[in-house]
Records
---
Amino acid sequence: MMRLTLKTFVLLLCCSHLQLAAQVQYTKEVADSMSTNGLAEHIRHEEIRKGLVNNALEALSGQTAGVNVTTNGTDRMAMLNSVRVRGTTSITGGNDPLVIIDGVTSDVATLSTIYPSDIASFTILKNASETARYGSRGASGVIEVKTKRGTGGGFQISYNGNYGVEPMYKYLPMLSAAQYRATAEAWGLDYNDGGFDTDFHKVITRTGSVQQHHLAFSGGTETQNYRASFGLMDHNTIVRVNDYRNMVAKIDVTQKAFGGRLTGDFGVFGSSAMTHDIFDTQMLFNSAATQNPTYPAGQDANGNWVKNSTAAWINHPGILLDEKNDSKDATLNTHLRLTYDIDSHLHLSLFGAYSYYSTSRAQFCPTWVWAQGNVYRGEFNGEDYLANAALNYGNAWGKHKLDASVSGEYHQQLRTGFWVQAKGITTNDFSYHNIGATSSRPFGGTGSSYEDPSLASLMGSVAYHFDNRYSLSATLRTDGSSMVGKDNTWGVFPSVSGTWNIHREAFMKDVSRVTLLRLRAGHGSSGNLGGITSYTTLNTVKENGIVSINGVPTVTMGTMKNTNPNLKWETRTTSNVGIDFGAWDNRLMLTAEYYYSLTTDMLYSYDVPVPAFAYDKLMANIGSMSNQGVELGVSMMPIQQKETELNINLNVAYQRNRLLSLSGEYNGMQMTAAEVTPIGSLYGAGQHGGDNNVVYQIVGQPLGVFYLPHCKGLVKNEQGNYRYDIADLDGDGEVNLGDGGDRYVAGQATPKVTLGSNISFRYKDWDIAVQVNGAFGHKIFNGTGLAYTNMSSFPTYNVLQGAPEKNIVDQNVSDYWLEDGDYVNIEYITVGYNIPIKSKAIRSLRLTANVNNVATLTAYSGLTPMINSYVVNGTLGIDDKRAYPLYRTFSMGVSVQF
Amino acid sequence: MKSYNRLSLSLLLATTLVSCLQENLRDQLYEEDIYNNATDIYVNAVAVLYNYIGGATDSEGLQGTCRGIYDYNTLTTDEAMIPIRGGDWYDGGLWDNMYQHKWSEDDLPLYDTWKYLYKVVVLANKSLHVIDTHRDLLTEEQAASYTAEVRAIRALFYYYIMDMYGRVPLVVAHDTPQKDVVQSERSEVLRFIVDELQDVLPMLADEPSNRKGNYYGRVTAPVAHFLLAKVMLNAEVYADDDWTDGIRPDGKDILFTVDGKELNAWEACIAYCDKLAEAGYALAPDYLSNFAVHNENSIENIFTIPLDKNLYAAQFWYLFRSRHYNHGGAVGGASENGTCATISTVMANGYGTDEEDTRFALNFYADTVRVDGKIVMQDNGKPLVYMPLELKRNLTGSPYLYTAGARMAKYEVDRTAHSDGRQPDNDIVLFRYADVLLMKAEAKVRNGEDGSAELNAVRDRVSMPHREATLDNILEERLLELVWEGHRRQDLIRYDRYHKAYDLRTPLPEEGNRYTTVFPIPHKSIDLNPNLKQHKGYADKEL
């Protein structure tokens, strides 16, 4: 939004023809999109974060209001499936925004493999009238990515590279060996003294390193141009076994023919990403924190691991590093777009794309972690075919302008998978490379799968503009899916929007300082099927077990679920109204937008009674949920001179989600989901399935609220230890910690307000940029603190420094450990220097120095408040022994253009 | 003109697209495609139900897994318990609450167990419908025997449902509308089970189910006979529609027709026990052979859950859950250091006295643990010594935090078991002939006869001196002989002791009216089906 006029931003980076040209082209696009669809959020390459960026998802973080990227969760890297545009709108799924890369339907996973230097711009579409073009697939927002292309400006080569180190700077302060011994003795507890003094956090970590290299060629003429690039990213994280490597290659060619009437765009994108993941993050970090610190770091003289066997929920951290959880993702995308100008008003566009995805997964658990060991290999392939034909009409008479288009689209997917799990390994030396050297492949561990869902759409849209002052547009689309019930294949989703460019009105002529004043509003609906998959509506059977029949083990087949053949589209209706204001040549820009979206016919797995049903869940379209919010953006350029320039951008989003209803009627039967449904709980010793639920889904509340017993304080028990004094909230004389017991809504897990801010300053050839993000109004349950303070688990499990003094012998869940999650985080500081070189060979040369993860301001007492606060799953809002130790990245970069 | 073009283009596209919006099943089939011939129907409508006898997840399976039927019939009694051990085994008080009878209708495992049992009933009803609608593919004999087997399986599940939940809905048709799912009196469910089993018995194969071969794992005539004997023995309990009023019908007045003769409950029990003797079942000379890794040749076992780590998914957690960690490690697996025999069980075995029962050493690990003759060491270098008499409900702070309590033995340890010891090859014993003898002894005594021959046959096998067949002695013998086999709750209820004080347990204040002898109808089941009414005792507590 406000960023679109900050042309001078471009100067911050190496000024090249390429970028200026891109800028011009881009401005035109935005003007187009504005006129028909309100105003989409647009982030140009120059504005993409300038700190060290490991992948394109991180590049998005904090750049625009209403878009949240959970970059933490576990390892402070951007999590897949963690990008949320205006929060969660569906319970069962389909909350990931649609990613469109150069027109090709893609997903967040693929976006994360694109090299940030290849991205020309992101456009975030949030309102229904903006996403209408993508129909159901865009129901949860759309991230349009345009990659860089050749410009016809002659041959160019550019290289970007950087190298960084990642030292750990903070981890949980557990008792040292000496403190551990002293505490056990002071408390008179029998403990095992292994005779060592080991800091197990150091055993599993190292100083991480990251490097990136990117090379691009481009060239061509007015009628034909190309761009080819190659990128490599290699990241060895601070955890010894946790590595990523990503290679990307990309070619784009544009050719014009028939006197410029036909334009052909052809592109190929391929990537190969390798991941060495941690097998069980929570187990590893829990083990590193709570392993008896008197135990040795490695094997003993005989090569055996000295185990702390009574601590059954953890393992020797060194052993856990031997587990393997590797994957390889390969992607190939190709697309071809032909645009033909039939006459000056009528244009035909044909678009075809093909994508191939392949994921290989390999896991290995050696016999010293799992008796008999465990080996897993899996291969998953996907193919996507997309065809789109559109006829666009545009004409103008005097002050009138009309655009109309009609298009049809067909999207076919094919997914297959094959996997084997084996046990009974005789040697750990093969790892997962020889699955034949195993004695057993039990039923259920080996399988293959196939599905081919398809989606078709028809769309017509009309937009009318008068005198560049008023625009009105309407879109009608119908989406059909193979996955919904037979009688509900098609859903119809209309949308309308309008804008009023007030600054172009005659009465504004005299107010010359105001360069932009625009009012816009939209209303529309879209369909979502993210909650279901192929075959959900079909009464199908598959293998469900193996029994002995006439002495022969025989596979039986049967149903695995209750089937609802009447499933239909979940519908989300959004209304939005916004205002944009610009003054002093748009050196000051303000935008504000309010939106309200209502999800109806919400797909959800409802509880049904057993009997008469065989299974306890039935997917149906019943409930509803609302999301509303205000998004504000400010951008200022207080200083704009030849040698000095200051830019300040700030975006703030307020969001409120509410689960309105989960009841209704299905086939004459009243269906009511439980009023209170747990979605997140603690895990670990003594917390197995007993009143350990923390985060709930409650009708009338936002998705993901803390529903907890209230702790009045600490009280001494007979043994002289403290326990949590839990309030009898319902006053029935008994304290009941169960789901339906003495609990109350104690706060929400998702932030009410999020903040992103970028400040950049240039003086001559030097520049500096700072990115600051923040989140407010939410809580975090410090499950790590609860577990690591509980002295009843000591000395079996180590505890935090200070825990012996607190003297708490209790592990009941209560609001004692619920804390404010507010934080402000300085994501990065980058200093750049454009070396003024006067050389024919080298057009520009730039050096940068970055610090990422600079500092976090928070009152939260745990390791970091940047846990999963956005994605509704079992980890939402709960800090439960799985946070990565904190590290900073210090890196140097060079970028050169020839 | 333009709009006309647009319309025709849309129509053209629409017709093309509709035909493309179809799912092509490849890795699944439509349900109607799996009943094409007699074999298909047997496999996918009858045998498929045997997948649910054992289980691989919590609360599923008649035995072998946790938080299900077995735990609610064992850890709620004077036989065994899982004590709190510091930070471990607290789990929100789940295990201690079981021991104290402080479960609630909100307990998830009770709901999960209910769902599991009724799932199999509903699937069985559907199987009967499938057999019915595919009669043209079956001979009359096939149709009759398939139907009989499914009805017998369904009766088996209703037996567990009735035993645990008392007044429960009897759903017997595949298309029962939700509004008709209402509770039947417990005595009606009892009659239904008896009638069903008696009705299908002539069509069931008269073959042992526990042995590998054509009938391995199936519900055959001996299984039905055993089940009928069990139901008869507990008929006083099951025929009692108000178990909180302190009045119980007399077994001598509860009449059943067996082979055309009208018999009272005790006589009927004896009649079915005799059928099992006639079928050739007998005590195995070696007590432990019934629980060996390869126990499929036992002449004593009647109904088992077939386990084979390489074939079936079903699991057996109980050894894994009981042993100390280092003990598990020493036999090539892992462990959870949980379940212990109660002190009263250990005392009943004469632990530490000169009269220690010979079965104590077979059924329990106590004192110093040896594996392959070597003493198992703890991490602190001290020998691992289980302390049976140091057991407490909460061991936090005890010097025997990790070692208190005698542990479960009984089953031979399969050193090659998968999943850290949870997938051995030992078949799990559900019904066996020693139980038949003890049932017969008890029925005889309750019917005013002498049951010492049967009681002492069981004692002879383990070289224990004869005892008089009093009801008390028989109950104790059941503990000694059948410990760890999941029968104790039912036995205590039959003996009217379940609600009283025993071992380390004091009764709940309101427990005197025996309301805890059935579990509550899960809250969620009532929420979803308002026809269901909560039992007395639990319902009052709600108010």
Note: Chain B has one domain: 34-314+429-542.
---
Amino acid sequence: MFSYNFKYELKQLLRSRWIQLLSIVLLLLFGFSTFNGIQKVEKRKKDITTAQEEVKENDAMMLKLLDSVERGLEVSASPWTIPTSPMAVGNYHPRVAAMEPQSMAFMATGQADLFTHYVKPTVSGDDFALNFTEMTSPVQLLFGSFDLAFVIVYLLPLLIIAFSYNVLSSEKESGSLRLLAAQPIGIQNWVLQKLGLRFFWLAVLVLIALTVVFLVHGINPFAQAAVYFGLLGIVLTYMLFWFALAFLINLWVGSSAKNAVALLGLWVVFVLLVPSVLNQMGNTLYPMPSRTLMINEMRSLKAEVTARQDEILDNYLRDHPEYALNDTTQTRSFWHRYMASQSLIKKELSPVVDAYEEQLQKQQDWVGRFKWISPAIIAQESLNQMAGTSTQDYESFRKQVIGFAASWREHFMPFLYNNQSFSQQDYPNLPKFVYTNTKTSVQNRVLLILGLSVLVYLIGILMYKRQTKNNLLAT
Amino acid sequence: MISKTFVKETKELLREGRVRIAVVIVLLLTGVAVWISARHYQNVNEQYEVAKTTERAVWDNQGEKNPHSAAHYGTYAFKPKYPLSLVDQGVDKFAGTSIFLEAHNRNEAQFSAAADQTALARFGDLTPDFILLFIIPLLIILLGYNSFTKEREMGTLTLLKSQGISNWKWLLGKWMALFLPVLVITTVLFLVAGLLLGNLSDFGVFSWSSLLMMYLVYLGYYIIFINIVLLISSKMKKSGISLVVSLCIWIIACLAAPKAASNIAENKHPYPTRQEFAANVLKDKKQGLDGHNPWSKETKLLEEEVLREYGVDSLHQLPFNFDGYRMQKSEEHEAEVYVKHYNYLKDQYAQQAKVYRGLAAISPYLPTRFLSMAIANTDYATHWDFADAAEEYRVATQKFLNDNFAVNSEYGNWSYQADADFWKGLPVFEYDPPELKTTLESNASNLMVMGGWLLGSFGLLLFTTKNF
């Protein structure tokens, strides 16, 4: 029976041009979305390279200036920008702290359009005031991006629905169901075989289309085998979930039109409603503290700190006796007081700043706890993580930059408090920022979607057992 | 004959379960969406009021201080929410809500809600505009996809033809039957919204004419969808295929086209990155007067000019404090630099807007979305308008402070402190969004695109059903 089914199904799909149509649609969608993703990644790379080139040029100028100063020549630059002063180097020659795109970053835009990919922290200024959002038109953020993740999470289920909503009902409507009932196969097995075959063919098409598109765009999927197979795992299990739903609906609901409506309703629920409701509930349960109140607090603290600058500097030097010892001149300028005050402000404000991170973490945990309600969330999250554009990635980048900002500042402190000039020999020792990726593995998520699909399938079987064959045939 | 078709179709729709279930679901979702939005608004509005009064108090009570220190201390402009944002939230989530106004720098609005949320926020929100823009068109498809195909499938087409009914009358009857439930749902929704908004006291000025305009825009949008769905239904042989084709149109119009448009727009007319933008501004600023640098070439030029104008030979003899004067002049130069760079951003966006309008040819969703946001004062243009108003206020504030510094102290006297009462003299920042008329004028192209869609879809529907 299975082989008959297989042959018949393939013939039918080819004759009704489903396979041809799906191949073209998939190639177009995957091609266009991959193209978009690659464009974005290239712009990102270009921006970072430009910024780094600029730093290189600036550094060359700085070294030249240093050379002139060290040889006792007169220089034309403004006195406070001459790089013998460590604070001038720290402020006017910042390094680029950049987050290079990962190899498969084109797959999902994720949060990449919202956040910036490089910042240049300086010794002055506040870490929490570093702006990590990117300058984008909010209309673009509202509409989102036509990326591979969009095609997979939003559009692929719709293709599956169009492909499978009437597997059983069309037989009923054309009257061939009664003939089928006479065959030695249970209806549910027959539907399962039919949907299974359709899943098989669609999976084959998706695999081929994805690989072809990658190769055409010059991406070798096997060079990043782990990510590529992770992607395939997510796509296949996600497809399986929607086929399982189609199985359930086909057995449970009656006519073609009703099936289509029910499946569409489920699509709206899983892809649009559950994510937005979960997000809104997360926001309500763990609301972000008011940003304006944070600013008020910061401002009053700063006013207070400015009033006691001298005292703060004394305390700071008491905590760091090495500075007081090594310096013979004991000169104290604006910068000495400023840096000591800044380190105090940072310490005192850290609980306020941490509150945001904690709340975001709680929201993230909340989503993590309930994401199994919608496979769309799991699929989107996994794709974002594989692409390195998830919220966690940007959060980790932010933390690494703030860490780097601290070490950048720390690097100049001995120079400042020892009243030591910055020289050409010190240049190679300047700290450099290296971004380390967060490690991700999607195995658990693949298993989770698989589990959900099996659950839906079992519900389908149970539902069917409750109905009798007569019910199905009598219309 | 029109009325008979209409009555029969309406009865059929009423009897069918899918209509009842679908309508109930839509109403339920809307209820939840309105409830969530209303809660959100109350929160935001309360925070806005608190922030506004606190910030003003901070400003008023800064005590004796040098005016330029106060200028660096700065103040904040907060973006208010408008009544119709309850219906359409627009880009509010992605645009910042507060702007720091300080000396020398024009700051971007910061702290957008989306940046403080998880990636789930990018899936969209359950808000009334989501129902109006996405779900009701879906409802139209569900109600109308088999309007004509069922006559073929049930074999009633032959019977109908023998009745001698003309095609356009038949069509009009079907059209009206599909339009009626949509009209009822939309009218109820907007009436409820109007009553709700009219009764909320802390929602600012609410105008019925804006709501009416919005209602008309959405009705136009739905009429376009009805035309498309009926057109497809009349051309297809099977209900199933008609449903699938209509859905494809929905996906393309509401989901795919906006995203594709955003990708194309960004590719063709990109914004600079934040760092690039800041670097460009800095470069231009350096080429002019720096208020904090009394030794620069530009300062010397300004000094000579002022001395010549007043016919004195030292800065001490001027009737005002030259430090304050220089600060003000440099402020004016910096403001010009910002105008230039922000105009560049606006130009880029104007180019992007053209891409969106171009793609509106395949998506009636796009002009509707832009019109709806514009009327609700939650669009990008309103955000620009607010940011510009804040900038204008910032420049005026700087003048207010620098003038006080220049008039009341002598050259070189940086220890001068203004009275504690002086700060209260600064006018409060008030911002009024553009009026409905201005909004419509600036969105004339979107209105025209929508008009084109309406006429085009009607024309196509009538023309192609002439010979059934």
Note: The mean pLDDT of chain A is 84.
